[in-house]
Design goal:
mainly alpha, DNA polymerase, domain 1, hpI Integrase, Chain A, 2 domains, 14 helices, 57% helix
């Protein structure tokens, strides 16, 4: 195997595909793991070797992530004529489960327990409303800077694929944020800080949301999308707000939309006659 093929692949992912640094590291890590497990040159592997490597993974999501990395790597090698075959293995079929989400009543009931007279309480309250109002990923929220929030909009810079997007924020979330920042009196450009005045960590943010809502921050992202869909928002608008590169990713919420439409139709006179 050419000594620099992995570095060339890393550059391809970072520059040509414009993937986030964490995603690039994940892809490279999967390919490195593949070579170390089989103890063979990567460009000499055949489909049978790949299947042997994959047989150790039983979780379908983990399996599909490995498959995505492997298929991408060998497609790159084939296109670059670095040798080896263009290996392509079908993805494992995942169950189409509806994403877990909370209704607005559940969220507001949870945050009502927060003591907003304290600095940390004001922060926790503002953070949860901010996540629910913006639908942003927790990593995007934690990298927010003061200048990114202006005129009722949140400019998301730290996004997958390094793509910027603008998301409007609800007045209630803006008021909670203003209250927190006023109490904090901080000069840091970072918005979400811990008690030491340092940027809040993912683990701490997870604990905050779990404490009051019993779920992960990502559930608030699903809750944001679900609220919009049930409110009649266009799927492509939701796609733009979530920062999904493909509408296919957003279409999981159409299950919720269909369920809501079916439930609404029960109010039709002909449905009532059948009862």
């Amino acid at each position: 195997m050419p000594a620099d093929i992995l570095e060339a692949y890393r550059l391809y992912l970072s520059v040509h595909k414009a993937l986030a640094e964490e995603t690039v590291s994940s892809y490279i890590g999967d390919i490195t793991q593949l070579g170390e497990h089989l103890q063979k040159p990567l460009l000499s592997l055949e489909t049978g070797d790949i299947l042997l490597f994959l047989s150790q993974f039983h979780n379908k999501r983990t399996l599909n992530r490995k498959l995505s990395s492997i298929n991408s790597f060998y497609r790159f090698c084939h296109e670059q004529e670095s040798g080896g075959s263009s290996i392509r293995i079908p993805m494992a079929k995942l169950p189409q489960n509806l994403p877990k989400y909370l209704g607005s009543d559940e969220i507001m009931r949870g945050v009502s327990m927060i003591d907003r007279s304290t600095l940390l309480g004001a922060r926790d309250y503002a953070l949860i409303l901010f996540l629910y109002a913006s639908g942003c990923r927790i990593s995007e929220a934690l990298h927010a800077r003061r200048e990114d929030i202006s005129g009722g909009w949140f400019k998301i810079r730290f996004a997958k694929g390094e793509k910027e997007r603008m998301v409007p924020l609800a007045p209630a979330a803006l008021e909670a944020l203003a209250h927190y920042l006023e109490m904090a009196g901080i000069t840091s450009s970072d918005v979400w800080l811990n008690y030491k005045g340092e940027r809040l960590s993912r683990i701490s943010a997870f604990k905050i949301v779990r404490k009051y809502l019993g779920c992960s921050p990502h559930v608030l992202r699903h809750s944001f999308a679900t609220s919009l869909i049930l409110g009649g928002a266009d799927l492509r608008v939701v796609q733009e707000l979530l920062g999904h590169s493909s509408l296919v990713t957003t279409q999981i919420y159409t299950h919720i939309q269909r369920e809501n439409l079916a439930q609404t139709m029960t109010h039709h006179p002909l449905y009532k006659e059948q009862r």
